[in-house]
Amino acid sequence: MADFQHFSDDGLLADLRRVAGLVDPVPADLLFSLSVAGLDIEVCRLVPALDGAMAGVRGDEETTRATFESASLTIMVEWTAGAAGTVRLDGWLAPPSPCRIELRTVDGPQTMDTDEGGRFAAQRVTRGEVQIRVHPTNDQEADGARTVVTPSFVV
Predict the structure, then answer these.
(1) Domain ranges of the chain
(2) Could you give the 3-state DSSP secondary structure of residue 54?
(3) What does the alpha-carbon distance between residue 150 and residue 28 come to, in Å, rounded to a whole number?
(4) Average pLDDT over residues 61-66
(5) What is the number of helices (H) and of strands (E) in the chain?
(6) Nearest to 71 by CA among 94, 89, 44
(7) N vs C: which end of the chain shows fewer Cβ within 10 Å?
(8) How far is CA 136 from the centre of its chain?
(9) Between the CA of residue 146 and those of 34, 94, 127, 143, what are the distances in Å?
(10) What is the DSSP string of 7-20?
């Protein structure tokens, strides 16, 4: 019987990579390169709620909330069920600033501007995956601001 106690995790992983490379090798003409420093966007992360859930209640309506953070911006959103499979989505930017908001939805993009308090709203968003892109103004871009993007989430 073989003694497997002398095998290390690194050795086993190296063997698995070698076998996978023999069974399904990477094509020789495949070129792939990504430079994170050159990206013109800043990606947010979802901030977990203190109670571990994203749901809340306001009056008789069920409201769901989510907060996303990046190095330069916090995006808070909440959505409330609407008619015919839609939701109303309200959002706030912190710090507040004038920006162009792009909601990428299952029906295509919706765009709107924030008000002076950094607030924005979309009256009818079809339920499904949504991604928010916050585009800076030309003046903000000149000062080094980048587009901020949330991960996709489901409303």
Answers:
(1) 38-154
(2) coil
(3) 35
(4) 84
(5) 2, 12
(6) 44
(7) N
(8) 17
(9) 18, 15, 28, 9
(10) --HHHHHHHHHHHH
Q: Across the strands, what pairs with 86?
A: 126
Residue 144 vs residue 118, higher pLDDT: 118
* 3-class secondary-structure state, position 103: strand
Phi-psi region of 140 (alpha: psi -120 to 50; beta: other; left: phi over 0): alpha
Q: Is the peptide bond before 48 cis (omega within 30 degrees of 0)?
A: no
Q: Cβ neighbours of residue 101 under 8 Å, at least 6 residues apart? A: 91, 111, 112, 113, 114, 120, 132, 133, 134, 135
Give pTM, 2 decimals: 0.68
- Distance (Å, whole) CA 71 – CA 76: 15
